[in-house]
Amino acid sequence: MQTRKLSRILLAVMILLLVGALPLMAQDEGEVQELGTGEIEINFWSGLGGPDGQSMTDLVTRFVEENPEVTINYQILGWGTFFDKLSAAIVAGSGGPDLMTLWHSVVPQYALTGHIMPVAEQMFNLGMLDKDDFSPALLDSVSFDGETYPVPFDNYGSGLYVNTRLLERAGISFDDPPENGEEFIEYLRRLTWDENGNTPNDDGFDAENIAVWPLSIGWNRVTVTPALYQWGTDVVTPAPEAEVLIDNEAAKAAVQYFHDMVFEHHALPGVNWNGELMLNDGIAMYLDGAWTYNFYNTNMEDGQIAFWPYPRLGPERGSTIMWAHTLAVTSNIEPDVLDATMRLIQFLSDNSREHSIKTGMPSARLSLRDAELADLIWTFDTLTTQMAAEGVPEYQSERFTEVENIMGAAYSSIFTGQQTVEEGLDDAAQRIRRALR
Amino acid sequence: MKRQAANASWTLTNKRREALAGYLFLAPYLGFFLVFLAGPVISAFVTAFVEWELLRGTYRFIGLENFQLIMEDDLFWIALGNSLYFAVMTTVGNVVVALFAALALKSIRLGHTVFRVVMYAPVVLSISVIGIIFSRLLAPFGLLNAGLELFGHNGFDYLADPNLVLPSLSLTTIWWGFGFPMLIFLAALYAVPETLYEAARIDGAGRRQILWRVTLPLIRPALLFIIVTQFIAHIQVFGQPYIMTNGGGPGYSSYTIVLHIYRNAFSYYHMGYAGAMALTLGVVMFIFALVQFRLLGRYTEY
Amino acid sequence: MQSDSRNILNKRLSKLATYAFLTILLLIVLFPTVWVVGQSFMPEEQILKWPVQIIPSEPTLDNYIEIFTTKLSRQELSLFRWLFNSVYVTTLSTIGVLLVTSMAGYAFARLRFPGKQLLFFGLGASFLVPGVMLLIPSFMLMRALGWIDTHHALIWPPLAGFFGVFFMRQFFLAIPSELAEAAVIDGASAFGIYWRVFLPLSRPAVATLGIFTFLFIWNDFTWPLVVLNSDEMRTLPVGLVVFLGEYWSYQGIVMAGAVVSSAPVLIVYIIFQRQITRAVMATGFGGR
Question: CA C16: distance to chain centroid?
Fold first, then answer.
C-alpha cells in the first residue's frame, strides 16, 4: 500500500517538474537565445563573456534592430570551453556556429584544416572592408596561401596595472616606471609589506606574514610570454617549420626570472585571479591583458589603479604580447546566411570603437583608434604606444589548444615549485614536439 | 497412446510459444544492448589499433603503434600514477570512515534514522554540486581556512598546493560518497548473528578483539565488494579535477588518467590514441581487480 | 556488584562516545551544506568579505531572482532551460529503462527458452566493462547516428544497462508461481500475465529501480559533457559547471544554482529514503 502511494508521489513529482518547467522554457527560448525575428538565422558564438561581452551583446542587439530580416542565435561561451565546444561541433558536423570569435593564435587550427573560410578576403574584394585599415602584420598572421581568413575585430596587448595608493606609500612616482629587470625587482621589494609594515629592505621583515604582495601574475600565458620575447625567443616558430624554442637557454633565463620573482621576491604565485585583492590594497601590481581594464574601471575608486607598459625585463629588447579577437566564418555556411553574416561582420567592425571604449581593447581598425580615445580610456595611450613600438603577436599553431595546455601546465608546475625551470621547460618542449609531430 | 502423443505435441507447441514469448520479451532490451553496449565494446577494441584524427579526418590501421606511443607518453604515466594514488587514498579513507560510521550506527537506536539519512544524503548529489561546494570551501579565503584562523593558523591553499591537491580531492570524494559503503557495511553487520557476539563476550573478548576476530572476518565479503568496486570507481576519477582544479592543476599534480583520455579524445580528437589509452586502463583495472580478489579473497576461505 | 555498576558506566560512556562520533560526522556533512545555502541568500559583497560568514546578516533573494530571470549578458544562466532538459531527459529515460528492463527481467525470471543461461551470463558480462572504455566508442556511435548535441544521446543509451534486468529478474523470481498459474488457467497471454499480474505485484521494485535510474541520469556529468555542445541542450550539472568556470566571481549566484540543482534529488531522496536505503543494502547498487 505504502509503496503504491510512494510511486504515485514519484510520478506526481516528475510530472509536476515537467509541466512546471514547460512554459518557462518557452519563455526562456524567446528571450535569451534568439535576437530578432527575421527569416535568416545566424548562429553566433562569442567568447567575449562577462563584462567584456556586454559591448558585443549591445552591438549584436542593435544589428538585428536595424536588420529585421535577420535572427541571431547568440551564444556566449567561456574561453575555457570555447575551443572544445567548437571542435566538438565541427566533429559532429552540425550544431556549430556560422560566425565565431577566434584568437588569432588559434586561427591556423581551424583554417589549415579547412573548417573556416577566407571571409576577410571576400569582404575586401567586395569592398565591404578596407584592407589598408588593418595592420599588415596582423592580417598576415591570419592569412594562409595568400588569403586572409577571419576579420580581426580588436587588437590588444598586456601591461602592468598598479595600485597608486601603494605606489605612493612606497614613495615611487607614477611617472617613473621601472626601466629594467633589476629595477623592477627593486620595486617589488619596496612594494612588499609584512604585517608590521616592514619591507624586505627593512630589518625584521617577516616573510611568513606578508600583508601586501608586490605582484600578482594571474595568467602565465599573458605574464611570462612577453618576457620570452625580451630574452629573444618564443614558444614555437610558425608552421611549417614549427621549431620548438621553449627549452633553449634564452627561454629558460626568461622563465627563471619569473621563477625567482615567485620564490625569492614574494610575488604572489599565480593561481587564482586576484583583482579583488588589488582593489583592497593587498596587491600592488598586476601584470595582465588589456581586458582587465573593464574590471578596474567599474570597481575602483577614482584613480586608484593606473597603467604602466609591460616593463622591460630582458636583455634583448622591450616587448609586450599582442592578440586579436577575430571574426571567423565556417566553411559550410549557406549562401544567404553568408551574405547576412558578412553584413554583421561589417557592422561589428565599423562599430568596434564602442567596444574599445567599454573594454579597453583597441579596435583592429587603425582609423578607429583616434586620439580622443586616450581621454576616454586610461590604458589606451600606454597600450597602443607600446603595441606599435614593440608588440609581438602571440605564437600560432595548428595544434594551438594542445600546445597551450602543455605550456599552461609547465608554468604552473614551475611556479608552484614542483619542477625546476630546466625540468619544466625540457618536459614541455618534449611534449610539444610530440604534439606537433 | 494417442492421448499421450497429443499431449506431447501440446507441450511442444506450448514450449515453443513460451520460447517465442521469451525472445519477444527480451527483444527490445537486446536491441538496445547490441547497439549501445555490445557495439561500442567491439569498437573500443578496434579503435585502439587505428590512427584516427577526427579534426583532420584521417583514419588508418596502425597496429600496435598507439601502444608504443603510450609507452613514450610521460603524461600517461604521470596521470596513471595520480589516479592510482587517488584511488588508494580514497578507497582506504572511505572504507575506514564508512566502517566506523556503520559500527556506530548499528549500536544506537535513538536518532538512528536521522544520522543514517543525513550521512547518505551527499551520495545523491551530483559531482558538479560537490565540485562547486568544495572548490569554494577549500579556496584560500574559504570556509576551511576561516575555521583554521579561529585557531590562529594561516591555512593552506588546498587546491593550488601540489602536495595537498590530491588529498583534498580525496577528502571531498569521501565526504561525497562514504554513505554508500556505510550502508553496505551496515547491512553486513546486521547479518552477523547476535549470538556470535554474545559468545565472544562470554569468552571475555574485548571490543577491539571482537572487531578484529568476529566482525571483520564475518563481513569480509562486503569488505571485498566495497574495496574492489570503490577502487574501480575512483581510479576513473574525472569530475573532481575537471571541476575543482581546472583540469588537473597545479601543473599536472591532479591530472588523472581519465582527464588525459578526455583531453586527447574531446579536446584534440586523437580518437585512436585516446581509445588505446582507455583500453589500456581497462586492462590495468581488470588486473588490479583480480589481484584484489586474490589477495583479499584468500582469507575468506577459512 | 561493583563490576556491574562499572559495566553500566562503561556502557554509558561508550554510548556517549558513539553519539559524539556520529554527531561530529553529522556536522561535517551538514556544515558545508548549511554554508552553501547561507551563501546563496547573501548579497555578493557579503560573500567576498573576509572572514567568511555562515549565516547571512541581510538575507536576500537576489541570487535566486537573478538565476531565474536571465539577462542577455549572462546567457549561460538559462537555468529553467537546464532544469527542463534535466527533467525531460531523466523522465523519458527512466520510463524507458523501467519498461525495457522489466520485460527482459521477466523473460529471464519466468519464461523458459533455449540459450537463457548463456544469454544471461553473456549480458551480465557487460558489468565488467568499465565506463571509461565505452566513452569514446559511444561518442563515435552518437556521431554516426547524428545524435551529438541532441537529447537522444542521453535518453536511449541507459536502456542498455544490465542492472535493471538483473534487479527486476531477482524480484520476479521471488513472486510465488501460484499467482501466475492462476492467470494461465484464466487464459491470459504471456504479455497479459506480465502486465496484469507481475508488474502490479512488483511495484516496489519498479519504484526502487526508477528512483535509482532517476538519480543516476539526473546526476550524470561526464557523458552529457561529452555529447552536448550548446547552451540550450545542457543538463543542470553540466550547465552549472560551465557557468562556474565563466562566472567564478559571481559566487552567490553559483551557490543558488547549486541549491536549485540539488533540490529535486534531495526531495526525491527524502521522500524515498527508506526504499533507497533498503535497496542499497540489499543490492549494493547506488554508490560512487
Answer: 35
8 Å CB contact of C84 and A25: yes
Q: What CATH code is carried by the domain that includes residue A245?
A: 3.40.190.10
% of chain A residues with pLDDT over 90: 53
Please state, in angstroms and rounded to a whole number, the distance separating the CA atoms of residues A243 and A117. 27
What CATH architecture is B66-298? Orthogonal Bundle (1.10)
The answer to whether A416 contacts B253, with C-beta atoms less than 8 Å apart, is yes
Omega before A200 within 30 of 0, i.e. cis: no
Nearest residue of B to residue A434, measured between CA atoms: B73
* pTM for the full predicted model: 0.87
Segment B268-281 shows an average pLDDT of 95
Evaluate whether residue A2 is within a structural domain.
no
Residues A109-155 pLDDT 10s: 999 888 999 999 999 999 999 999 998 988 998 999 899 999 999 99
Shared domain for A110 and A51, answered yes or no, is yes
Assess whether A133 and A177 both reside in one domain: no
The answer to whether B197 and B214 have CB atoms below 8 angstroms apart is yes
| Contact call for B160 and A416, based on CB within 8 A | yes
Cis previous bond, A238, omega within 30: no
- Position A20 in a domain: no
Report DSSP state, residue B64: T
- Residue B231 CB: number of other CB atoms within 10 A? 21
Task: Name which of C143, C242, C267 is nearest A13 (Cβ-Cβ).
Answer: C267
Number of domains observed in the structure of chain A: 2
Q: Is residue A81 less than 8 Å (CB to CB) from chain B?
A: no
Helices and strands: H and E segment counts in chain B: 16, 2
> What ipTM is given for this predicted complex?
0.88
Q: Residue C138's closest chain B neighbor by CA? A: B40
Region of A151 on the Ramachandran plot (φ > 0 left; ψ -120 to 50 alpha; else beta): beta
C-alpha cell read off for C238: 553540466
Give a yes or no: residue A129 inside a domain: yes
Residues A298 and A428 in one domain: yes
Same domain, A107 and A240: no
Would an 8 Å CB–CB cutoff place A13 in contact with chain C? yes
The span from the CA of A419 to the CA of B268, in Å, is 26
Give the residue on C whose Cα is nearest the Cα of B184. Answer: C281
C-alpha cell at B211: 572487531
Contact C121, B28 (CB under 8 A): no
Domain, as residue range, for A198: 158-321+399-436
